[in-house]
Write a structure and sequence with these properties.
The protein is built from 13 helices and five strands. The chain has helices spanning about 1-5, 10-25, 45-55, 80-85, 90-100, 120-125, 140-150, 160-180, 185-190, 200-205, 220-225, 225-240, 260-280, and strands at about 35-40, 60, 105-110, 130-135, 215-220.
């Protein structure tokens, strides 16, 4: 079935997805709301964690695809549209009986961590939700995001020039978003190479609206180095039964092109104060700032 879906023409796929979402919306009252949300960050290994979480016998992911993007760019579509993306309670009950445990579902949308209105919306609509936020060396994350946006045609400048342009591209757009919660900004979403690495600010936005003990930060450096231990920590935080996936794959990795050493040093210096603040929030040194990292 999955191979047939992959081979289907794009028009057929879009029509099928629209029909499925419409059906999901009509049956929203029969569906589970997420008990936890993987909010990002972009290019921090979220797809790898998403797939590892889906492998857990007590976890069902979104029905259609990884990124629902409700609390950032689709909030105007309403609660029934959102619930329509998740499994029915009947399916969760059937899976739970087979697994011998209660089954939960989750959302994973990488723009939530950066969007200025997503934390409040999440806290308001899912007041008992738990939040997972992944972090990565912000220098590597910025360069990886640049390559990702460039490959998609969303960026045309060199990396150095894109960094120079970031403030004038993004800052006015952020102000407009704050003034008008319905406003969508292309540059805020696709050109914030530095700003998406200010992890301390992202965490603060979530803990402003949710208890700090319901926000867990996962360091991707630790997750890829010691996946079993980090997965166990995540499972304990979520209240899931003990389970180890048969494998931990690294998804969506891009080739590691060399970054100019002077630019790397400059970026590392720019991120230093945010990394120190993050260390205070985590109670440990981020993987990329440890000796020998």
């Amino acid at each position: 079935m999955s191979s047939l879906k992959r081979r289907a023409p794009q028009g057929v796929k879009r029509a099928g997805r629209r029909a499925a979402i419409a059906f999901g919306r009509r049956t929203a009252g029969l569906r589970l709301a997420p008990s936890f949300v993987l909010v990002g960050g972009q290019r921090c290994g979220t797809t790898s964690l998403f797939r590892a979480l889906q492998a857990h016998p007590a976890v069902l992911g979104p029905v259609f695809h990884k990124g629902v993007n409700y609390f950032d760019v689709n909030y105007d579509k309403g609660w029934s549209w959102y619930l329509g993306h998740f499994p029915t309670a009947a399916r969760a009950g059937w899976v739970g009986r087979r697994a011998g445990q209660r089954v939960v579902t989750f959302d994973a949308s990488g723009y939530y961590s950066h969007h200025p209105h997503a934390p409040l919306r999440l806290a308001k609509d899912l007041p008992d939700v738990k939040i997972l936020l992944m972090v990565r060396d912000p220098v590597e994350r910025a360069f990886s995001a640049y390559k990702h946006e460039y490959a998609r045609g969303f960026e045309t400048e060199t990396f150095d020039r894109a960094l120079e342009l970031e403030d004038e591209r993004v800052a006015p757009e952020l102000e407009r978003m704050l003034d008008d919660p319905s406003y969508y900004s292309f540059s805020h979403r696709h050109h914030a190479y530095r700003r998406r690495g200010y992890y301390d600010e992202q965490i603060a936005r979530f803990t402003e609206h949710l208890p700090a003990d319901r926000v867990l930060v996962v360091d991707s450096g630790d997750f890829f180095t010691e996946p079993e231990a980090e997965y166990r920590r995540v499972s304990d935080f979520l209240g899931l039964s003990s389970y180890t996936p048969p494998r931990f794959d690294r998804w969506n990795a891009r080739p590691s092109d060399p970054l100019d050493p002077q630019l790397r040093e400059r970026l590392s210096s720019d991120f230093a104060s945010h990394d120190r603040a993050l260390e205070g929030l985590l109670g440990r040194t981020p993987s990329w700032r440890r000796s020998g990292a």
